[in-house]
Amino acid sequence: MKPIAFKIPITNKELLRFQIDDESYLYDKLHLHPELQIGLILKSEGTVIAGDYIGRFVPGDIFVIGSNLPHVFKNDSKYFQDRKDLRVYAFTIYPNEKLLNEGLLSYKETASLKKILQDATKGMKVEGETKKSITEKIWKLKRSTGMNRLMMLLEILKTLSESKEIKILNKHLSPISYSEKEGKRMIDIFQFTFEQSHRAISVDEVAAIANMSIPSFCRYFKLHTRKTYIEFLNEIRINNAYMLLQQEDSGIADVCYRVGFNNLSNFNRIFKKITGHTPREFKNAT
Predict the structure, then answer these.
(1) Using CA atoms, how far apart are residues 68 and 157, in angstroms rounded to an integer?
(2) How many angstroms separate the most distant Cα atoms in the chain?
(3) How many CA atoms lie within 13 A of 158 on its CB side?
(4) pTM of the prediction?
(5) Same structural domain for residues 208 and 88?
(6) Which residues contact 154 (CB under 8 A, 6 or more apart)?
(7) Residue 190 maps to which CATH number?
(8) How far is it, in rounded angstroms, from Cα 34 to Cα 69?
(9) How far apart are CA 268 and CA 273, in angstroms?
(10) Which of 135, 223, 261, 285 is deepest in the core (most CB within 10 A)?
(11) Contact at 8 Å (CB) between 79 and 25?
(12) Could you list the residue range(s) of the whole structural domain that residue 60 is in?
């Protein structure tokens, strides 16, 4: 199997695959697949990467991941500590690719669905009242069988295509794609960063992980993520800080050093640049 290619076990006799994740943590490798993915997070939190987007996911979130968009839903570190009180619970819908591309989309009555599938290749987060509506429909689909399951899938797609409460995750017009070799290299870089972001990391250290010179690595990473490695690292750290700041016993200075910054003023500046508010403002609001 290719390093980042992921096989969704849908047979030709299935209209869709409804997956229930009830595990210690979600699949934590950067991957992609040709099928559309509609996911409802019920119990789980962490960092999501989809193309050039990095953000938090929490219970109640709905993400739509389009065909061949590299992504990973990485749970917070506490989920990997063998804690029996922490489980993830999530529903994911994978429509049969042939049903969409060779079936429904070939008719003029379903023209509005083409745009939603195009937008999904950039990654989408469902918000507002649409999120509430889609959540109810996903639960109904879970309980449905036969033709009712297909009808509910169409209801979900129709609601998405008509909604104005969709956040497009990628800033760019086209999704990022990786070759097999590049995918393996990016997985190594991402996994290393996830695991080591709490400490000082030098660019030459990451370049060695990628088996590249420093200049070559910097060009390579910017080309494939549309951001510098330091920007990527800071976004991971700020997402970790988001989680820690919501804990009552976490002070701002303590969080600053725990997530990997060695300077409080630098932490405050980068936090505001990425989130639009200061750590103090966020802490007070939560």
Answers:
(1) 19
(2) 58
(3) 10
(4) 0.80
(5) no
(6) none
(7) 1.10.10.60
(8) 8
(9) 9
(10) 261
(11) yes
(12) 16-168
H-run or E-run covering 29: none
**Cα–Cα distance, 281 to 193 (Å, whole number):** 27
Name the amino acid, one letter, at 57.
F
- The predicted-structure confidence for 39-83, as pLDDT tens digits, reads as follows 999 999 999 988 878 899 999 999 999 988 889 999 988 898 888
40 φ/ψ angles, rounded to the nearest 5 degrees: -110, 120
| CA distances to 55, 146, 253, 270 from 266, in Å | 20, 56, 11, 6
β-bridge pairing 88-95 and 16-23: antiparallel
User: Crossing angle of helices 229-245/180-196, nearest 10°?
Assistant: 40
The model's pLDDT over 234-275, given as tens digits with 9 standing for 90+, comes to 999 998 998 899 887 889 999 999 999 999 999 999 999 999
Would you say 157 and 138 are in contact if contact means Cβ atoms under 8 Å apart? no
Distance in angstroms (rounded) separating the CA atoms of residues 275 and 235: 10
CA distance 280 to 286: 10
Residue 157 has φ and ψ, to the nearest 5°, of: -65, -40
pLDDT at 219 over 90: yes
225's CB contacts (< 8 A; 6+ apart) are 52, 176, 232
On whether residue 72 sits in a domain, the answer given is yes
Q: Would residue 270 count as lying in a domain? A: yes
Residues 19/94, Cβ–Cβ less than 8 Å: yes
Q: Which of 23, 94, 100 is nearest to 65 (CA)?
A: 94
